[in-house]
Amino acid sequence: MNLWQRCIDHLQAELPPQQFNTWIRPLHAIQESSRIRLLAPNKFVLDWVNNHYIELINSFFTHLEEASNLLVVLEIGSKPRKREAGAINGLQHVQKSRAPQQTKNSQQPAETSLESNINPNFTVDTFVEGKSNQLARAAAIQIGANPGTAYNPLFIYGGVGLGKTHLLHAVGNIILSNNPSSRVVYLHSEAFVAEMVKALQNNTIENFKKRYRSVNALLIDDVQFFAGKERSQEEFFHTFNALFESQQQIILTSDRFPKEVTGLEERLKSRFGWGLTVAIEPPDLETRVAILKRKAQQLFNVDLPNEVAFFIGKRVRSNIRELEGALRRIIASARFTGRPISLDFAKEALKDLLAAHDKQVTIENIQKTVAEYFKIRVSDLLSSKRNRSIARPRQIAMSLAKELTNHSLPEIGNAFGGKDHTTVLYATRKIAALKESDTRIAEDYGNLLRTLTN
Amino acid sequence: MQQLPLGITLNPGISFSSFIPGSNAQALASLQSAVAGHENSFIFLWGGKGTGKSHLLQAACQQADALNLQAAYIPLLQAHSFSAAIFEGLEQFDLVCLDDLEQVTGLPGWEQALFNLFNSLRDNGARLLITAHCSPTALEVALPDLASRLSWGLSYRLYPLSEDETIEALLQSATDRGLKLPTETAHYLLKHCPRDMGSLLDILNRLDHASLAAQRRLTIPFVRTQLESELIAARRLHTQT
After folding, report:
1. What are the CA-CA distances from residue A207 to residues A110, A198, A204, A213, B105 (Å)?
2. Cβ contacts of B29 on chain A, cutoff 8 Å
3. I need a surface site. Which of A10, A289, A432, B75 has the fewest CB within 10 A?
4. CB burial class (10 A; 0-12, 13-18, 19+) of residue A136?
5. If chain B, 241 residues long, is cut into consecutive pieces of 10 residues, what is the mean pLDDT of each piece?
């Protein structure tokens, strides 16, 4: 048994399990002839071990005859991770790291140009089309075919978990399939910031600039995370200009419309709107069902019965990640019990998840959320005021109550200051019609729906 | 004369095999399979006090170790004495276990760090196990990007053990410590003490020390006297403060 293993056994017997698991287990030991190097994942763990456990470790070795002169050195680092081939659990993995230079242990020379890092699994074919994302999908295909010339930049916005990242990679895949030598780089805005900070620290900012200004397509996810980070915005502004002028494609995503991203400089916001801006809305029921069936097939090779897909799709509406979570639970339960996936089985398997979910949405909660959203008072919603600035939010709140709770129309009417059930019925029909004709209403409704169900 | 117990307790180690599953057999199986890398690299467990959340996460670390994987366990209950910097470098690990997530939700620095860790672990194909006192959708997460990711994985609610299962777990835990706990004493404890596993194990730990110090077996009269003297000591402390 090696020396560190003996020390570990000793510490495990001596320390409470939680302390052992938190501070000792993550250490990776490298034994050299006269010393042991203990690698801690970060400075925090290193300091903690130094302050609390190093004496215990040293005293163990001092009392060990064959190790009494052994030197214990603490360093920051970790065991190089062996990558597992393929995808565990069907999650798609980016084949190369998001940005090769970002990897902590990578020793690449800083001037290396960026390579494409597009996830081959996120294609247009695996993107389920519906009314909510038709336009964004069409734009993605067109830009993929004519990068840098069709629309530049493409700005995709929408709530979390609706497929923005998927679409980014899908464009990247089209560009690469037409021109495999293109350098198409995907990056989360946080990673851009982190890398820039590192470049500033290491005095390699010029290389950083060069690298990002020499790609053929730059796909930046979640630009709202640039908010408040002025130096990063400044750098990104220049990168944007350089790529734009040399007609390289830029694609950005955000959780909201460019002008509405708070904490971004005006010059960036205005540039983000230069090309084409498209929204991804939350998927409607039919699209959710199609997504579930597709995912069941792709991730688990399971043919999900329609009635089960409709059941999940009706109950889980907020985003696609949550749909996938519910699907995973049903599949895991089916495999564990060996039972076929029927509607009753699905209801049983999702009982806990859905109960936790349902508790959230009450009529009071809806009224509070709607009032806050439109900056009016809950008492206004319950009043009989008829001016539009009050009546419209009231109608929206009633529609949401009908959609999200199991209360009857008379109960809903009652909860809105004793209105008649026909008022509720009128409100739900009115809002359904307005959602088709007025994009502002559709957007407000979608935002509220997401807030309430997320 | 009272014998002083040694400062060392035989630490039984926490493993999957010492976990009494009760109604949580499926969660247990999924965790084991996740650590082994078969499927579902992200699992979220939620449940009340004493439902085995910490046990399962630490058992996962133990199993990972046996598979020569690098694992980290972070008890966020102690987050007040940490900072989010504790996540740095963990993206290089094979398994990261975060216990009591509700302790850091709503705190911007932690949520941002967690969001970044989540993305990196996912990109690297590493496993992530999280526990909290409520389901992912009921957690009050401020960052929507993080909230939606927490609902992405396989999730289980953990159920407390039934009375019989609690007795079984208590006896098992005593045996693991090399301690002889008569079944009637276990029943006595269940009747007179808080019934969640965490509290019961704490009591067992104290009784372990007391029985060693007094050289007495864990009979009901001995246990009763011990619990009463603990109560008196606690009251005295209370009136003093």
Report:
1. 6, 12, 5, 10, 37
2. 336
3. A432
4. buried
5. 43 78 95 91 92 93 92 93 92 95 94 93 92 92 92 94 90 87 92 82 88 90 90 80 62
pLDDT for position A446: 87
Q: Compare CB distances from B93 to A78, A93, A329 and report the shortest one's residue.
A: A78
In 3-state terms, what secondary structure has residue B156?
A: strand
Residues of B in contact with A318 (CB under 8 A): 148
Is the bond leading into A153 cis (omega within 30 degrees of zero)? yes
Interval B5-32: pLDDT, tens: 443 344 456 889 888 899 999 999 999 9
Q: Which of A78, A90, A333 sits opposite B89 (nearest CB)?
A: A78
User: Are residues B39 and A333, on separate chains, in Cβ contact within 8 Å?
Assistant: no
Q: Residue A334 has which token pair?
A: 């089916």
Provide ipTM, 2 decimals: 0.86
Considering only CB atoms, A21 lies closest to which of B10, B61, B115, namely B61
pLDDT in tens, A99-158: 333 333 444 444 567 888 898 989 999 999 998 999 999 999 999 999 998 899 999 999
Tell me the average confidence (pLDDT) per consecutive run of 10 residues in chain A, 454 residues long.
Answer: 87 89 93 90 94 92 84 88 45 36 41 81 92 94 92 93 94 95 93 91 92 93 93 93 95 92 92 93 92 94 96 90 96 96 96 75 90 93 92 95 79 90 91 90 89 75
Report the C-alpha gap between B196 and B210 in whole angstroms. Answer: 21
Q: Which CATH number fits domain B5-157: 3.40.50.720, 3.40.50.300, 3.40.50.10800, 3.40.630.30?
A: 3.40.50.300
Best residue in B130, B151, B158 for a mutation probing chain A (most A CBs within 10 Å): B151
Instruction: For chain B, give every residue range classified as CATH 3.40.50.300.
Output: 5-157
A85 interface with B at CB cutoff 8 Å: no
Report CA torsion sign: A287, A290, A296, A301.
negative
Q: Which CATH architecture has domain B163-240?
A: Orthogonal Bundle (1.10)
Give how far A188 is from chain B: nearest CA, Å: 10
| Closest Cβ opposite residue B58 in set A17, A89, A352 | A17
Start-end of CATH 1.10.8.60 domains in chain B: 163-240
Structure tokens at B65: 């170790």
Please give the model's pTM, rounded to 2 decimal places. Answer: 0.79
Cα A266 to Cα A270: distance, rounded to the nearest angstrom:
6
